[in-house]
Amino acid sequence: MEIQRKRLNLRDTVVEALAVRIITGTYVPGTALPHETNLLEEFAVSRTCLREALQLLSGKGLIVSRPRIGTVVRDQIDWNFLDADMLRWRRQVIPPQTYLNELFAMRRLVEPEAAALAAERATKDQMIQIRSAYEAMGARSPHYSDDAIEGDVKFHRLILTASGNALFSGVGACIEESLRASIRLTSQPTVEAPDSRSLHGAVIDAIEERDSEAARHRSHQLLDVTLQSLKDAGYAPS
Q1: Burial of 26 (0-12, 13-18, 19+ CB in 10 A)
Q2: Are 192 and 229 in contact (CB under 8 A)?
């Protein structure tokens, strides 16, 4: 078991190192990775470990094996940007403003529609769960605890799931870590909007009232105050 764990750790180290080089443009799309012999020497891993790492990168759309050419970096259009590992790797190498801008733009597109659909489709049990997550947020400023942050994350993810759209729910699973980081930033006492928690409550009220238009509108309002908090924190998503 210990040997297997070490092998997996080595594999993951290789995967991350190569992925970061691809994402940052060290290895340019359309060009081949260094020869297997060179990679084996650099990372000091077994051929099996290296090939497993390359298979993982292939599964994320970053590389493809081509006869007589080798392993080639794919165009960005083929990259699986919503993969959880991809999100984590990109957070390491892109400016925080860019990362938050991308996250906020996705939330603006998805969350209001998910809230509207949840008002139409959420089951009684799902509404109970959303209400419970809201209550778990507790009093926010000035002491927004880790438990409150987790309640906030769960609140948003449950609404995506309650939309009844599996792809919306899948987006929630993909961006959970990014969402958590954003909430942690915007819940600081110096930047948090005073009406943020009440707007969360207004969203769940509309869902419980089966008012899809109100749910959509209130979700937009919540995102508006989130945007202001990001700006107050020194970030300015467009």
Answers
A1: exposed
A2: yes
Q: How many CB atoms lie within 10 A of CB 92?
A: 12
What dihedral do alpha carbons 29, 97, 165, 173 form, nearest 10°?
Answer: 80
Q: What is the dihedral of CA 174, 171, 183, 106, to 10 degrees?
A: 120
Among candidates 30, 38, 36, which has minimal Cα distance to 73? 30
41 CB neighbour count, 10 Å cutoff: 11
Say what the pTM is: 0.83
Local confidence pLDDT in tens for the 238 residues of the chain? 555 565 568 999 999 999 999 999 999 999 999 999 999 999 999 999 999 999 999 999 999 998 888 899 999 999 999 898 999 999 899 988 888 888 899 999 999 999 999 999 999 999 999 999 999 987 554 456 788 889 999 999 999 999 999 999 999 988 888 888 888 888 877 777 778 889 999 999 999 999 999 999 999 999 999 988 888 888 766 5
